[in-house]
Amino acid sequence: MSDALDRPDDQGRPDQPVRAVPGGVSRDGTTPAGRDPGAPTPAEANPAELLPGGPAPTAAVPATGATTGARAERTVLRLARPYLGRLVGAGLLAAATEFAGLALMATATWLLMSAAGRPTLDRLTVAIVAVRALAVSRGVFRYTERLAGHDAVLRMITDVRARVFATLAARRDGAAQRTGDALSRLVSDVEAVQDLLLRVLVPGAAAALVSLLAVGGAALISPPAAGVLAVGVLVAGVALPALATGLTRRAADEVAPLRGALAVDAVDLTHGAADLAAFGAASAEGRARRLARLERRLAAAGFAVDAAGVLISGLTAAAVVAVALRAGVGAVLVGVLAVGTLAAVEIALALVGAARQRAQLRAGLARVAALLTGPGPAPAGPVAGTPAAGTPAAAGRTGAVAAGPDVRFDGVTVRYRAGAAPALDGVDLDLPAGRRVAVVGPSGAGKSTLAGVLTGAVRPDAGRVTLDGTDVAGYPPEELPRMIGGLLAEAYVFHASVRENLLLGRPGADEAELTAATRAAGLLDWVRDQPAGWDTVVGEQGGQLSGGQRQRLALARALLAAPAVLVLDEPTEGLDPAAADAVLASALAATPAGHSVLLISHRLSGLAELDEIVVLDAGRVVQRGRHADLVAQPGWYRDQWLLQEAAERGYLALTPTP
Amino acid sequence: MNRRPFDPRLLRRVPAARRDLAVLAVLGGLTALLVVAQATALATLLATAVDGRLHRPALAGFVAAVAARALVSWGQGTVAARAAATVKATLRGDLLRAVGRHGPTWVAGQRAGQLATLTGRGLDALDPYFTGYLPQLVLSVTVPLAVLARIVLADWSSALIIALTIPLIPVFGALLGWQAQAATERQWRRLSLLGGHFLDMVAGLPTLRAFGRARAQVDVVRRMADGHRQATMRTLRIAFLSALVLELVATLSVALVAVPVGIRLLGGGITLATALLVLLLTPEAYLPLRAAGSRFHASMEGLTALDEALTLSATPAAAATAATPLPAPDGRGEIRFEGVTVEYERTTALRDVTLTIRPGERVAVIGPSGAGKSTLLNLLLGFVAPTAGRVTVDGVDLAEVDLDAWRRQLAWVPQRAHLFAGSLADNIRLGVPDAPDTTLARAVRDAALDEVVAALPDGLATVLGERGHGLSSGQRQRVALARAFLRDAPLVLLDEPTARLDSASEAVVLAATRRLVAGRTALLVAHRPALLGDADRILRVEDGRVTELTPTPAGKAS
């Protein structure tokens, strides 16, 4: 949303830079479309670690050259096809705008130089009318061009956003966690598509078209002069843009690592501010100064291209005058040629800005293209071989199921990286309908992976998980959550009202159901305390909530969803022991009797009521049984239980001094 | 939002940029003169062409003026970019120093992420401001003046038309700007809401997926994006109108000047050279104003970043210490909280707390989350200052001492220590950069970090990635403990050091913690009961009030 294009008060996009106004003969001071900021500033840093879609497909982008960039552009532009008519219209209007500017100056010059020969007034009438008409039409063309261009592009962006979201939604690699920075980068990448059209292609095409027309027009007057103009236009519209592209890329390649390092410094110095202050460590500013030195050096090279543009337009005009006079062209037309040349080269120079812009968009476009062409979304319909409608799946949402499916883990093995120790190693587990099982064990034992395999977010490398005999891998991604779901690791709280966040669990839930779920999660009092009640908007990423409240909100949502197999991954994380025990008990009590529960916990309190406790260690089941049995036999569970019990009893026995 | 085109604070805060900006002004004046010179030469050249001859001096003059303009334009760009780089580097330094000056609670309050973004990429938005807008701003003063002066000399009636129409540009711009502003800003809020929606949805995708709502949400995203488009178009229709009017003022002025001049030429009332000069110069008078106007919007982001940076880095430190801070007391002294109240913006963290911690005492603090436990530690760290009351060590008020010197008496183990991008050894040496290897090795051993180090590819030299990826929470806490061991300070502050650990890691960290607090004064916030066993006293914080607890025999037994 850093995009200037979207900005409503975007008066003109970056206008002609200083260099683009050669002496007295420039166009009439109107705003050309899509001129580059004129500032050959180094391209945005695009550190590879911030890539949105995981590192694989796009990591090579900065290293590869123009071919990848061109391919990415083609991929993105394919999406523009439905709006091709509108875009061509916008391009033609842009060309008309530029052409009107050129014609205005050329006609006015013709008018003056002809008038000097003292013809009768009526010989000039047409020119006078033309000057006035061109003066008005230019503004009108510009206005319609900008509206048409923005309309077409914004329509396309709507498609792109929906497509990107659909692609991400269809991905199964839920593990790929995105940082906030990578997310906002994703948003600006999508907007790079907009820039490509509005700032590069439309104005670029218009500039090329008008340059051609200008050369053609000059050829009608004097072919040798047209030859000179053609050379000038080629230098301004081809050679200089190529140079600008090269310099922009080099600048980006040199600056990007330094900017990336600076960003890491900034994160360290702000997020680690407490550590630094407490330990009295000094901060380093050397990097910022090195970056400044590099930027200064690169700017000198970049602006040389702009200076060359100024020089080219003037030299071409001078050469055209000299050649035309030698060729015996009449004075009036020499004037028209001179003024027209300045304007035409000027228009061609817009391609320099477009080239820079394009070079800067390269990385963002490549990432969008990789997203759009990457492992595509699965077909929308149910996957072949999956249970048809009418299975318990369809009924799960209504909450009217008497009994859920029987879940079975058969020798499930998960290995996140080849060669690494398996996160799950041949795990067998039975979770018949209505059974409540806890999975405990040290951190890193594979508990969350177990939940991931069950919910389909992680695919086992060996073995399988079945629901009533059907492999979960066969279920379409939209079906499975109706039966299996709950509170998973990294539960996200949306920037929306409490009600909307809860309804995500069950879209049709009524007030009573919301109240029941929220009470069970221990959040009801808080909601009632808020002036806006259910409509309290929880801030950006749930920022208005404390960690404990967020956890409770996520738990309430899971309880409201009430899938037949409820997975609770550390539901009481971030709560103090007393609150944790109370919330766990009320959550379990709120779960309908026929529903199964898979509870993942590192605390061992409150597990006595569960049907079975499974102890995982290093991906293997090392112990299983009911709480009473496990406490009675030596092993990890008993050790931990005794340790915790001793500590907690001491804690609970504490009382205020009288 | 600051809408002034130039922030005068800039000159005061970045003196190094003054010279560049002065050079920019001089070059702007030079450009104006060259614009006039170039047009004069071209007008002469074309006027003499009527006689069928090439006016060589005029041609040479034209080429020379063009070459000089090219050079000046290069100079302008380079100087502007230099100024941008200087300002950015200075402000980055100022911001980072402000972080150090204000301390971590200020950073947390100001949102560390925002600050990091501003220091990192945010300030780069200043580039278009400096290289695009500022030079145009200078030109929009110098060029119209030079052009008008030249045309007054040549043909005062044309000059009159220009002088009357030029002010229309800023006037219309402002009028339309105000007119559109209310509508625009209402829309803008909506637009950013819609834009943010996409981000929120993508961020929450795993959760949407978990509830089977991801696919269903595609339609919502499309609908919101379409709403975004319609709202944007509505706004643009108005916003572009202002551009249209300004464009018409400029182009119609050319027609207004050219047509009468042409008719006067017919009557012989003006020479061709003058007429051409007027025609060539007229558009130049309008161009820089309009260019500056349009670029102002492109550089808004940069101006906003500049405003934020100048404001943030200038905020006076909340806990302003005395002009000449007292020398820090010994960390082995008696610590007293005397009627301490700490109020944050929205809540009161501590209410009238009075307590004494005797040297060598190990004090545990328990209580529900948000009750004010961490605030107790932050007071001792000097991260927050009491709103009322005072904290003294050996009778010296902490508000009056040199905080850096005082903090050298402390070792701090936070809930979640930050790991810096650097080697593991550097991370541990944070508080003692020149600690010899043998001391480092002992700290590593004491913190039970040695087995972790052995498993790392490069041992202590292993570089920890951005934000210290590659270490688990338990390992991270052991790094924090190693820092504290290496610090070897008389007073140890521990903030829930085992909050996020499972029992096995907790046991290791606990054992190391016991070694750390032995023989030192220690204040430890306990989230888990396991930490309480070794405490001499237990404080309970609830709702900002502190009460003393006596462990029952059951607690002592463990």
From TrEMBL, chain B:
The chain crosses the membrane at residues 21-48, 54-72, 133-153, 159-180, 238-259, 265-287. It is a multi-pass membrane protein. Keywords: ATP-binding, Membrane, Nucleotide-binding, Transmembrane, Transmembrane helix. SMART domains: AAA (SM00382). It is found in: Cell membrane. Residues 335-557 form the ABC transporter domain. Pfam families: ABC_membrane (PF00664), ABC_tran (PF00005). Residues 22-301 form the ABC transmembrane type-1 domain. InterPro entries: AAA+_ATPase, ABC1_TM_dom, ABC1_TM_sf, ABC_transporter-like_ATP-bd, ABC_transporter-like_CS, ABC_transptr_CydD, P-loop_NTPase, Type_1_exporter. NCBIfam families: CydD. This is Thiol reductant ABC exporter subunit CydD. The lineage of its organism: Bacteria, Bacillati, Actinomycetota, Actinomycetes, Micromonosporales.
